[in-house]
Write a structure and sequence with these properties.
This protein is mainly α and 65 residues long. Helix content is 80%, strand content 0%. It has helices spanning 3-21, 27-30, 32-42, 44-61. Helix 1 (3-21) packs antiparallel against helix 3 (32-42), helix 1 packs parallel to helix 4 and helix 3 (32-42) runs antiparallel to helix 4 (44-61). The N and C termini lie far apart (34 Å). It has one domain (3-61).
Length: 65
């Protein structure tokens, strides 16, 4: 995976996190877990950078629509 693709994946994850926070989509329906796994395989450092925000978002905004 190229650096550009990794940056795009990271941006997609952040966008999905915002949609979950605004309750436009549920955590399960967003598919963010698969994206996080892809990021972990591609770039461990970027994954570690996003992980704290992801955990906080998952704990606070895991609401059913």
């Amino acid at each position: 995976m190229t650096a550009r693709e990794i940056m795009k994946l990271e941006a997609t994850i952040r966008m999905k996190m915002e949609e979950i926070k605004k309750q436009r989509v549920s955590l399960k329906d967003s598919g963010i877990g698969g994206l996080m796994n892809s990021l972990k395989k591609a770039d461990e450092a970027a994954y570690e950078k996003i992980l704290p925000d992801y955990k906080k978002m998952a704990a606070d905004y895991n609401l059913f629509k």
